[in-house]
Amino acid sequence: MASTPASTSILIINPNSTRSMTAALAPLLADLTHPGLALHFHTGPPDAPPSINDAETSAASAAATLPSVLPLLAAHDAVLVACFSEHPLVPMLRTHLASSGSGLGTRRKPVLGIFEASVLHARALGRPFGIVTTGSYWEAALSRGVRGLFGSGDVGGSFVGVCSTGLSALELHEMPADEVRERIACAAQALVGERDAEVVIMGCAGMSGMKDAVREGARQAGREEVVILDAVRCGVGMLDGMLRAMGRD
């Protein structure tokens, strides 16, 4: 007997051009699918940067990826931009969907970035949270992003800051696994041990599946129990819940 197609679909966009990063996400998110939800993946075109490391590569990736995404929107109910930043593709897609077509259904499609999704998730837990990220550029950039979301630099004392690994998103996949693990653990140790974070967000889509490294760093800091948030999983879960709340399941 043929299976019934999922009634809702989330399009997950990796706005850089590195297909291996996109391919790595699918098995890590497979347990979030259910008979009413399908996940589909899209990688930025070849002219998108291979890694998003700063404001310039963010802007370049949005400009390159937007045209390739627009023809796909009609086939999906929600969109997740899998770049941990205030990525310009998020407002671009929201603006497009809000202004296109005349039907309410078109304008009801939510668009979310993994940065926003994970920070909202962390804030809801009501415990001190911080972010482990890639290059040092993101320490200030992501701190500004949190301030922009909540209008407060430390979110009433909840946000304890950002610690970087010094690696790019591409290096997370290309460098030896032991070195990557050590870099992530070191950043997590600083976040938990020096800043008292109880919730750690993995601040890069390329870190999905690397919770053990964060947990190792927390243990090195003397904390056995810490909540570790995978930003991509946060985004999928939030969009799935939104679609259900909107009556799209």
From TrEMBL:
Organism (species): Obba rivulosa
One term of GO molecular function: amino-acid racemase activity
The name this protein goes by in its record: Hydantoin racemase
Domain of life (superkingdom): Eukaryota
Assigned protein family: Belongs to the HyuE racemase family.
InterPro entries given in the database record: Asp/Glu/hydantoin_racemase (IPR015942), Hydantoin_racemase-like (IPR052186), Iso_Racemase_Enz_sf (IPR053714)
